[in-house]
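Bug #77: duplicate submission created two jobs. Keeping one. Sequence:
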Amino acid sequence: MASPLADRIRPQTLEDMVGQQHLIGPGKPLRRILESGEIPNLIFYGPSGVGKTTLASIIAKRTNRKLYKLNGTAASTADIKEIVANLNTFETINGVLLYLDEIQYFNKKQQQTLLEYIEDGRIVLIASTTENPYFYVYNAILSRSTVFEFKPVTPQELLPAVERAFRELGEERALEIRLEEGTAEHIASACGGDVRKAMNAAELCVLTAGAPEDGVLTVSLELARELTQRSAMRYDKEGDDHYDILSAFQKSMRGSDPDAALHYLGRLLEAGDLPSACRRLIVCACEDVGLAWPQIIPVVKAAVDSALMVGLPEGRIPLADAVVLVSLAPKSNTAHIALDEAIADLRAGLTGDIPRALQNKHFDGADNPHKGQFYKYPHDFPDSWVDQQYLPDALAGKKYYRFGANKNEQAFRAYWEAVKRKNGKL
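Kept job's structure:
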């Protein structure tokens, strides 16, 4: 069985690689490290298909080290010990470079097994991960490694690789492959910066383009579009992309940008993640609109209930209404900020006994010289308000809530100032 095109035409030199010029371009940090000849332990962090494995292979070749590859999803401690057993043999005379893909799946004990050997330099470790290494990689490994972040390859950088892929496929099949105008550009832009996806898309286009005519195989733009649907999506419900999209979704609504908010809603829904979109939408209505327009909360809840009831794709319609509404609504975070301040005092030990007037009891012990509940029922007083202490003595007079500048809260403020002024308490 033939290996995938991405493996068959994998770059062999730094000059052949596409993307990551912020790391391997002339004068850039990783390029300078490679040119020095002294390779430290490295951690490559970034999305799939952007050159992490390719660069590890190039480094091994440049340094004449024996390259071993392990994948964290399947490798075991026994695999590491087998590599160690080959140290100081003829084939490892220049040292060993271990490329450990998906290191986040190695547990702490497995990662600790590597420490002795990477510390004394017998093994140079290049680990790759699609997740934030500061969350998933053991601290002792991190402290002995240099982390480099890989980024999605831009369409402009990817286009030459796509064109090369079609040339290679034509040579393999002894065919002239003719691309409709815009086909290569579409693949380069539709694969989410993933070189491997782009290579696979090119190969699939050739496999499904039909029979050649007079030695010419034509690949249409329409076919490329069909084969790359949703290819640009990067989404993993357990990964960084999930939380990044959710964060961008809420920040766009909070920032009153309905266009960006709809974009991120679309990314969530295209990935089929209706529940996360609904949860974050309700949170934003409460947290970011809040008291500036509290009526929005039941409106958004109704839209979310409708979306969950009908499911996708129809559920996108009430959610779109709600997202635009939240984005354009006035904003206030006064209520939850006030609660956070109250909780901070509680965690600092500022509590105190509940005032006697508010306690849920109607009798006093024999040791209480001041008998009685002394609670004043506000509805017995004008404007249903009476001055009495509600906070514990330790917090008496403490202010957590501050009126927002929006029209709604300023109306509340004017009302209560008028009531208290009339009662001589302002």
